[in-house]
């Protein structure tokens, strides 16, 4: 075994401030590594400017998103073929009732879970099924014509039968599933709600644990106004209540869940229905929310199939998560038979949330909400001897993060909370919300790193070493000094030091964090690159990139360090040359790693493997994904791979169009949110970047790798010259105060239009068109 030299830590904030804001005011400067004296250039005439955004009207958005919609001309027969609806809590998938002439609308809810932690997250605190509705026509179904409108987040269309036609519309909003069905010819619509047994979906793969007893049977009742309720009591306390009523052509349904109360769920489900009134009334609120939602950012690129997929993922994550709601389970809010009916913390939950940042939707971050609200549970998760100063979480849990974590030295998986906190740190970096840093990241990360510090011990080499821990999912005896944990320890200590400086905290642990960074053993490497851990090479196919976290997503070892480029390359190549265990996120992860290197063509080659129907686990017809059960994180991570090709902002630098595939000559970004709380808009035409506009939301230092060639112009929105400094290697430092915007381009001022690009790679719609 050999060891990789110490990586270069990111410079402290003082150093970044000192370099990024240095230099004299300039109107134009050469776009090369060597600055020349500022001179006037074409386009720098002092004229104010403003982007011409063509995506400001309902008609523009409706027209663009209509081209991304999912379509069905065949009746879907499986959950991963059908339409899906959700509002971050209540979810429904629509497909044929197995073996019957009926259409199933599943009814599942992100808060509905068991409450018996003694049986573990797979059985005792797992997500529980609620039930499903069936729509039974009078005749035999012969055809469907359905559209899932992204713009309206609504399913519409017809069901043709031997008796006539049913016209339907469906949506989910404010925890209400609303469906409107009208019948023509000899058709009629018969609705039935089918409660499902409140038992773990894990029953498909194993028997219940010893001592487990089933939950009591449900009961039903009907109120005087015709509202029917199904009441499901739980052995561990609490209740699930499903209420539904029909009024004319409308069916409205809502789910409530409470614990430990046995009655609050009933009131919640009825209250939700009382607010809904009718389909039309609910739809008005629903479409208003979604129409405002989409306008927060825009991206367009010429591959129709992938562009549609990308926008569907934004619809999907907004259907599955809202800040303040439950953290996404591995299946999202759409529970189906699965061995994973809980929240998985060793990769799944992290990948689920990455795409929300660049899409400019912090309001979807239920992960940060979950960690903030459950800090006491995170403390209770570590062994009692460490609770005075430590926190952690085990591999899987319920929505309250209830799962104990083992001790290093026993082969336990101990780094998952620290990795989840990296997600929250990304939320902070994209928003610069000081309260998120102060109230969640700093206190919880301090305790998560403290847990590690109890077990680091000096070796004969003078280095600090970690006893045996598990590199997630690598199927060998857990080694010492796993790269998974070493990367997280390094990131955590550096982040705590940076956070303490920003918060003005003189923390007594700062010397210890500095010592760890100075003395922690280097990452174990061998001739093939990064190993799993000390004396444990990467020697068999591994779907997870747990041993490569220092490369992605932590960027501790990165392409801006020339001395590490060979190590990065051979590590990623060796990861994928051992085949057999790779899954969808193996390809999305590799795509993002190659995007870091600037190799967009290799990145898109790996990403397309996820969509290749000849692979063992490809993306499914409705853009969902399944292995042994539904797994929501992989398609969402594919959108992040696209973001990594379009714009990156790690290491204190924004990189515009860093890894765009050569085939994508045209690309438009608008209000793409980056670290430092910047909104980036940029247009690429005929393979050339035409302009970059950056708006600062927080006044952070701005370093821009622009990719432009020729004499640069950098001008503020009022026409005055921006204060800039050429930092070399195609990087421009710009002094951009909070609330101001800068336009960077070469030559005369270009057309500043924000508009969809033309499709050069046509493709079929998603669904079953």
Describe this structure in words.
This protein is an alpha+beta fold and 769 residues long. The protein folds into three domains: 17-56 and 665-754, Immunoglobulin-like (Sandwich), CATH 2.60.40; 73-214 and 241-254, Distorted Sandwich (Beta-galactosidase, Chain A, domain 5), CATH 2.70.98; 321-652, Alpha/alpha barrel (Glycosyltransferase), CATH 1.50.10. 27% of the residues lie in helices and 24% in strands. It contains 18 helices and 36 strands. Strand 5 (84-86) and strand 6 form a beta hairpin.
Main sheet overview:
10 strands, mixed
Give the class from helix and strand content and strand pairing.
alpha+beta
Radius of gyration of CA atoms, rounded to a whole number? 27 Å
CATH topology of the largest domain: Glycosyltransferase
As for the number of domains, it is 3
Cα separation of the termini: 54 Å
Q: How are strands sequenced across the largest beta sheet?
A: 14-15-16-17-12-11-10-9-4-36
Assembly state: single chain
What is the count of helical runs?
18
Strand content: 15-25%
The helix content is 25-40%
Number of DSSP strand runs:
36
CATH class of the largest domain: Mainly Alpha
Poorly predicted runs are: 1-44
Average pLDDT across residues? 94
CATH architecture of the largest domain: Alpha/alpha barrel
What sort of overall outline do the alpha carbons produce when their principal axes are compared? Answer: globular
């Amino acid at each position: 075994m050999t060891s990789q030299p110490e990586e270069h830590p990111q410079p402290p904030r003082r150093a970044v401030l000192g370099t990024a804001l240095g230099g004299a005011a300039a109107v134009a400067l050469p776009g090369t590594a060597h600055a020349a004296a500022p001179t006037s250039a074409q386009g720098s005439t002092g004229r104010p400017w403003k982007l011409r955004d063509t995506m400001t009207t309902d008609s523009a958005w409706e027209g663009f998103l209509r081209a991304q919609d999912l379509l069905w001309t065949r009746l879907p027969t499986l959950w991963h073929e059908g339409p899906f609806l959700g509002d971050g809590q209540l979810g429904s998938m629509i497909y044929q009732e197995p073996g019957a002439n009926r259409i199933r609308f599943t009814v599942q809810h992100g808060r509905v879970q068991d409450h018996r932690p003694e049986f573990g997250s797979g059985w005792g605190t797992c997500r529980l099924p609620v039930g499903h509705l069936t729509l039974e026509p009078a005749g035999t179904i012969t055809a469907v014509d359905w559209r899932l409108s992204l713009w309206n987040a609504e399913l519409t269309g017809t069901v043709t039968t031997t008796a006539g036609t049913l016209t339907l519309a469906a949506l989910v909003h404010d925890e209400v599933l609303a469906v409107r069905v009208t019948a023509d010819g000899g058709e009629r619509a018969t609705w039935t709600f089918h409660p499902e047994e409140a038992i773990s979906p894990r029953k498909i793969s194993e028997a219940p644990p010893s001592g487990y007893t089933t939950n009591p049977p449900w009961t039903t009742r009907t109120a005087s106004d015709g509202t029917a309720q199904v009441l499901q009591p739980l052995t561990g306390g609490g209740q699930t209540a499903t209420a539904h009523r029909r009024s004319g052509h409308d069916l409205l349904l809502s789910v409530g869940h409470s614990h430990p109360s046995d009655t609050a769920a009933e009131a919640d489900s009825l209250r939700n229905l009382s607010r809904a009134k009718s389909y039309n009334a609910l739809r008005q609120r629903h479409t208003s929310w979604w129409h405002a939602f989409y306008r927060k950012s825009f991206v367009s690129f010429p591959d129709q199939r992938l562009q549609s997929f990308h926008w569907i993922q934004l619809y999907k994550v907004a259907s599955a998560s809202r800040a303040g709601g439950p953290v996404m389970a591995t299946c999202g809010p759409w529970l189906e038979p699965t061995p994973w009916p809980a929240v998985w913390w060793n990769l799944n939950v992290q990948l689920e949330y990455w795409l929300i940042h660049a899409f400019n939707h912090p309001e979807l971050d239920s992960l940060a909400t979950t960690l903030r609200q459950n800090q006491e549970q995170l403390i209770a998760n570590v062994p009692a001897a460490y609770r005075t100063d430590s926190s952690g979480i085990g591999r899987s849990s319920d929505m309250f993060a209830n799962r104990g974590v083992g001790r290093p030295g026993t082969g336990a998986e101990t780094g998952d909370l620290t990795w989840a906190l990296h997600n929250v740190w990304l939320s902070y970096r994209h928003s610069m919300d000081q309260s998120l840093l102060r109230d969640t990241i700093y206190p919880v990360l301090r305790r998560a790193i403290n847990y590690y510090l109890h077990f680091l011990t000096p070796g004969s080499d003078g280095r600090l070493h970690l006893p045996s821990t598990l590199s997630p999912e690598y199927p060998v005896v857990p080694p010492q000094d796993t790269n998974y944990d070493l990367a997280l320890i390094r990131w955590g200590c550096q982040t705590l030091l940076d956070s303490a400086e920003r918060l003005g905290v003189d923390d007594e642990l700062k010397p210890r964090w500095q010592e760890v960074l100075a003395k922690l053993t280097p990452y174990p490497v061998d001739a093939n690159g990064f190993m799993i851990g000390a004396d444990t090479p990467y020697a068999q196919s591994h779907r997870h990139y747990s041993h490569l976290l220092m490369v992605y997503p932590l960027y501790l070892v990165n392409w801006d360090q020339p001395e590490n480029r060979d190590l990065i390359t051979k590590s990623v190549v060796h990861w994928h040359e051992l085949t057999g265990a790779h899954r969808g996120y193996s390809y999305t992860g590799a795509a993002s790693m190659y995007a870091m290197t600037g190799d967009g063509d290799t990145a898109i080659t790996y990403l397309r493997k996820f969509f290749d129907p000849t692979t063992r686990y490809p993306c499914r017809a409705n853009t969902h994904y399944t292995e042994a059960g539904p797994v929501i994180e992989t398609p969402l991570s594919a959108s992040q791979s696209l973001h990594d090709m379009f714009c990156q902002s790690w290491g204190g630098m924004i990189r515009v169009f860093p890894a765009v595939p050569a085939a994508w000559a045209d690309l438009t970004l608008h209000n793409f949110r980056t670290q430092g709380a910047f909104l980036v808009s940029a247009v690429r035409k005929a393979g050339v970047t035409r302009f970059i506009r950056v708006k600062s939301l927080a006044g952070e230092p701005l370093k821009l790798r622009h990719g432009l060639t020729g004499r640069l112009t950098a001008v503020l929105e009022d026409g005055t010259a921006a204060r800039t400094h050429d930092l070399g290697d195609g990087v421009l430092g710009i002094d951009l105060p909070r609330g101001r915007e800068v336009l960077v381009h070469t030559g005369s001022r270009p057309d500043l239009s924000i508009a969809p690009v033309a499709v050069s790679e046509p493709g079929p719609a998603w669904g079953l068109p």
